[in-house]
Amino acid sequence: MAWNTSNESNLRALAILRVSSGRQKDGVSHDTQESEIGRYCKEHRLDLVETRRIVESAKRSIDRKKYNAAIDFALNNGIKHLLFYMKDRETRNLTDNERNEELVRTGQIILHYVNDRKVIDISSPGSDFFLRDIQAATAKNYVRDLATKVADALRYKAEFGWYPGNHPPLGYIQQKPKNADGKEIRDAMAIVVPDPNEHKRRMVQREFELRAEGLSLDQIRQRIKAEGFLRLAGMTCHTKSVLEKRLKSKFYGGYFDWNGIEYQGKHEPIIPKPIFDKVRTTFDPAFIPKPRNEEPLFSGMLRCAKPECGKQIVYDPKKKTIRTTGEVRTFKYYHCTNARRVHPSLAGMNVTEANLLDQYRRVADEVTITPAFAIAIKQALADTDAKSKAALRRQAQEFRDKGLHLERLEDTLYEHFCQGITTKDQYQRNIAKVRADRRRYEDLHFKTMEAINDAVLESCGRILELATSAELKWKAMSDVEKRDFAKTVLSNHLLDGSTVRYTLKNPFRVLVAMRGNEGWLLRTGSNRRPSD
Q1: 210, 223, 327, 485: least surrounded by Cβ within 10 Å?
Q2: What's the farthest any 2 CA atoms get from each other in the chain?
């Protein structure tokens, strides 16, 4: 190294230790930088008079308040030597790069890059400053690419139905899926789940309940405090504005906004929908959800079974006055619109809502399975799911390895360009292709990791739960629940005159077929899978 301490009378030094976030570790933590810089100062007999630990991004000069304060401190106190662990610890923007070059060229500071054992001072050749410019531009481009990748990844996550932010509303936390040993899967995508702290969940639920009862924001705050929720939940801020924002949040209704777009979330609701709707009405009188029991149950659900027609079955209520009592009663009828004039007459084609419900009752009989059979299927599904996840993890690791290989290839291409092995045009063509391939593998890795969750298994569990003793459950269901059950289990709803026709959806059709041959699942050495 051309520079040495014998050329300098001022050996006072300031170390600037920068990380982008408090969670950054792995080789460039504050402790690692401080240890290496300490050894460097002893090696070159520098007087380390000040060490500044900084946690802030280096991509925008205007946002680097602590960094700029450290530079000003050095200038105001006659500290000439500024020590950085690596070049990208100094700057990732061109503004700071230009400013520091001016300070170097006027002899006010000397820059030391400890890890590279590189020094930039007033006597450094122009090639050193040129290389520094290239490295600063490369670092800035890296930040730009990283920001784009992060934005894309967060958008993908939102499109998959998972809230991308790091701080979900009170009552929820971000959590990574866990393996069979209860340990978090490191590379898996974090998802939003209800907070395991029951007091926090219950406090949010209580706030919604009190608002639904008609209490004002001040009254809710007093009740929450009186009932001890603030102490149990460790809350320090429970102002009217915070409370109002929480009660208005669409997140508790199953939706969230990201970059101005509304998405339907996959997170588990902790507020029952009737309570959420009622609370929303207190803030927005225009939002008055129509009571479901007053809606026509089968409106838009059935079509005419006659192929030449296929028109939608309409709801056609008839009001009649009972002569003996004077009571006005509504009789709920459904029939084909006959818009295509296929039917000579609608005589005999009117069917009541009660009759439709009675016809759908046989569906519960068809899909009912025993609890023992459901348990056996769940076990088989769990075994298959474990194998599927293992295969997905292997595939995800393969995509990750290919992405890392391409990342190293980018560095090699850049080195070849700097060494003159490749021309600028060759470098730009090669780097464009490599980066396109990297983005593709990163997308594949993200989507594969997103698939490694319990969504499929949970969905199968809900199907089995719905089918278990469905015949008995039907009797306890409300009319709306019976209609929803039919929608869940059936497809292709047709009305043939006054008779309902339908098709069992595939999962339930398979269950019905398996129910007649339950022994296959328990046979030793069977190669059959639940999907078969």
Answers
A1: 327
A2: 117
